[in-house]
Amino acid sequence: MQHSRVIAYASRQLKIHERNYPTHDLELAAIVFALKIWRHYLYGEKCKIFTDHKSLQYLFTQHDLNLRQRRWLELLSDYDCTIEYHPGRANVVADALSRKPQGRLNALYASRVSLLAELRSTGVELKLEEQSEAFLANFQVKPILIDRVLAAQLLDEEIQELISLRNEGKKKDLKIRDSDGMLMQENRMYVPNNEELKKEILDEAHCSAYAMHPGGTKMYHTIRPFYYWPGMKREIAEYVSRCIVCQQVKAERKKPFGRLQPLPVPQWKWENITMDFVYKLPRTQNGFDGIWVVVDRLTKSAHFIPVREKYSLNKLAQLFISKIVKYHGVPVNIISDRDPRFTSKFWTAFQEALGTRLLYSTAYHPQTDGQSERTIQTLEDMLRSSVMQFGDSWHDRLDLMEFAYNNSFHSSIGMSPFEALYGKACRTPLCWSEVGERILEGPEIVDETTQNIQVIKSNLKVAQDRQKSLADRHTTDRMYNVGDYVFLKLSPWRGVVRFGKKGKLSPRYIGPYKITERIGEVAYRLELPPELSKVHNVFHVSMLRHYVSDPSHVIPPQPLEINPDLTYDEEPVTILDWKDKTLRNKTVRLVKVLWRNHSAEEATWETEERMRDMYPRLFYGF
């Protein structure tokens, strides 16, 4: 204050360690805080400090001071100031501000606009009393939707004509309400053909906090007892179908889109192969923690190659030469998923040098390489069985698993992979006496091998037709045109597992995005925004959802940082609060965490220990 006039205000929240200060130190800390921030006003000037803490006026004459007080006393000695006692009842302004529940008032003020909007959307009008000085001290509720319907009826020529017909006895199902003269249809308000009014009613029954985006049938039965207009059920269904929130968050209750598209039957053995990796297996003594699965599409024979997840691309290329090319020659093409190893420049250049064509599955549609996925499923079953029955390392019996797989009957080709590959099944201890010598010389071997290939091709074609027929029973066609807009299915992933939080409740779809090209029968190329530049832009039709446009839609910019695999991470921003939770035998420290892209109301309580391990940056300075 200067000349009894306030020239500046200052305040701040207490830091975590300051909350443990005794009252005397807190009052002194306030003085030190004021001297620091207003040093440019006070340094070199004679000033008075007024406080309602009486003991501080004896600070300069006290003898027993703690280290903190001594440090602050040295700072006070730089100023020409005196501390004078000012009773709290006389120190009205400062005392009132210090006791004001600022956090709650700020929250009330921030929610004032949303509260008013919510009250108005429910059909009530908020009026402040002129005599009241409090914002929400006194208000009255007045329905406004009813008044608006009544006012619209008075101005609508069609409604007035219906009233005339009713008065003439030609519309016996219509009534006039005695209280206000409103036209009623079987005790329901007759809504005029006013698009704005009907939209307001539909918004209230669908988008308000008391509706929570119901489906068309539920919404119709909610509105029907109170309102009526011709074609109401149809308009409600159209309204729900255009709701952009419903399009983004609700699952489609339809068969998956996209008919099965079988790959063409290969012409010869090991010319067309598929491959994939299985990682995160228990690490063996040799350091192996994964298996490279390579399968021939014609004979269904496979190789299971033990690998390490940290293998370089150069090492994988060496394994490919020694385990595949060495025994079967260079393949014509390879089908795989979009594993970074397979899409890397090194692997692409390596296969190009061999003359092999690389074919990748569409983004996030592993069914393209279904053969590898199914083989991996069988392999994992054998791994589990081996570990349970024999108990040793999975790597010790991997060669026998490969033999068992290749020597077992395969329904698609009508024989075992070994029989398709070599002309007969391999010997096993199961039937020593039944296995005799077979001597095939010259043309006989060629003829039998050729016959086997023709049988395999025929069996594969029959199997593909059967599988397509079965798969198509559970799918349906969906065709888009270039220029259409679609939503893209999103796969949420949470860095911290928290039940019921925003990560679990995030939208199912993002977009909409424009279709720029049709790829084959069931794939489309999308025009993705820059933040999704790392995502492959060709998607199977099952990953897309038709966007129903509406002029009222305002598409917000994508708020999430999407990973290349269409997942996203939830990142903490800061810690808002701390508390202790007492369990039976111990006390657990909890922190209230504010997450990126979420409001303070969505902050969650997490254990301090876990957050320190995962996000130590949050605790710098604490």
UniProtKB/TrEMBL annotation:
Q: What is this protein called?
A: Integrase catalytic domain-containing protein
Q: Which residues form a coiled coil?
A: none
Q: Which residues form the Chromo domain?
A: 568-622
Q: Which GO terms describe its molecular function?
A: aspartic-type endopeptidase activity; DNA binding; DNA-directed DNA polymerase activity; endonuclease activity; metal ion binding; RNA-directed DNA polymerase activity
The protein's matches in CDD domains, at most eight in alphabetical order, are given as:
RNase_HI_RT_Ty3
What InterPro entries has UniProt attached to this entry? Chromo-like_dom_sf, Chromo/chromo_shadow_dom, DNA/RNA_pol_sf, Integrase_cat-core, Integrase_H2C2, Retrovirus_Pol_polyprotein, RNaseH-like_sf, RNaseH_sf
**Record domain Integrase catalytic: where:** 260-425
A Gene Ontology BP annotation from the UniProt entry? proteolysis
The alphabetized UniProt keywords are: Aspartyl protease, DNA integration, DNA recombination, DNA-binding, DNA-directed DNA polymerase, Endonuclease, Hydrolase, Magnesium, Metal-binding, Nuclease, Nucleotidyltransferase, Protease, RNA-directed DNA polymerase, Transferase
